[in-house]
What we know:
Blueprint: E1 5-9, H1 18-33, E2 38-44, E3 58-62, H2 66-75, H3 83-86, E4 91-94, E5 107-110, H4 115-118, H5 125-141, E6 144-147, H6 150-160, E7 167-169, H7 185-191, E8 199-203, H8 212-224, E9 230-234, H9 242-247, E10 257-261, H10 268-274, E11 277-280, H11 289-296, E12 301-304, H12 309-313, E13 318-320, H13 325-337, H14 339-354, H15 358-372
Parallel strand pairs: 1-2, 1-4, 2-3, 4-5, 5-6, 6-7, 8-9, 8-11, 9-10, 11-12, 12-13
Amino acid sequence: xxxxxxxxxxxxxxxxxxxxxxxxxxxxxxxxxxxxxxxxxxxxxxxxxxxxxxxxxxxxxxxxxxxxxxxxxxxxxxxxxxxxxxxxxxxxxxxxxxxxxxxxxxxxxxxxxxxxxxxxxxxxxxxxxxxxxxxxxxxxxxxxxxxxxxxxxxxxxxxxxxxxxxxxxxxxxxxxxxxxxxxxxxxxxxxxxxxxxxxxxxxxxxxxxxxxxxxxxxxxxxxxxxxxxxxxxxxxxxxxxxxxxxxxxxxxxxxxxxxxxxxxxxxxxxxxxxxxxxxxxxxxxxxxxxxxxxxxxxxxxxxxxxxxxxxxxxxxxxxxxxxxxxxxxxxxxxxxxxxxxxxxxxxxxxxxxxxxxxxxxxxxxxxxxxxxx
Length: 373
């Protein structure tokens, strides 16, 4: 019996945010733990692609920028089979919302979230228009869908009418360097000299869906209650962000909101570990991986009671109404000052994060591939 040939679109692994990290870690764990499949990692890029060193996968790079293939496939609808670029395969895994033309009907499509549907006003208009067009077409053609949470699984079934049995949830994991370890604050302030005072941390691209504007309003309430604490936001600049930066200049919080920009993953554990608490009061998330990372570092977590976020936080997080700054502020104060709650929930968070591994997610993905072959 021949070994199933699995072609994986590795292009999105070059992204620095959540999609890229998910693809890098899932594929890396797949190659390491499931060598019984014949893998080809394909990337469309005008720049060199850093493929994983583990495993025996073949690496194929097409020296065409992804934007040009997007135009050919999804705007001009030119039926160029992806196999002409990546080689013959039994299963093709499209990792970033869009399924290209393919010779095989055994395809798997990764849908990371439906934020552009659930919170449309927070989406960049060009990206929303693209996803509104390409996702339903891709879902009609694909054999199977993988998602990152039960909430996203239900969203895809509800909004697009995909039979629930054709959608599989993959476990997201935490890398080993996110852990409880003694850390030197001097190391933190060397890289982030603005963080001289206690701070609340939030991680994610500066864009409306992250709800930073209300988080900043909550910071004002927390400081008014007597807590001398700042807010640090680790995330690259996104879209529709002018109101967020304007909110950070209001008198009650001016000088106490620090936009750190994109932070290398190697520096994130120190940021998490030294934070008074971690806040992710997003309006919608496909999963919310920073919640697990913060918990793994022994940091208490405040997050929204919407979408997948209660699922990501489990019993260890403190939930709030993300549309009410007062609710966010109340949760932040409790997470920072209620010692009984902290003594119970910080260890719960460490244990909760430990149950989420990329190896587990890779096993679930391998089972999907085997089910199609």
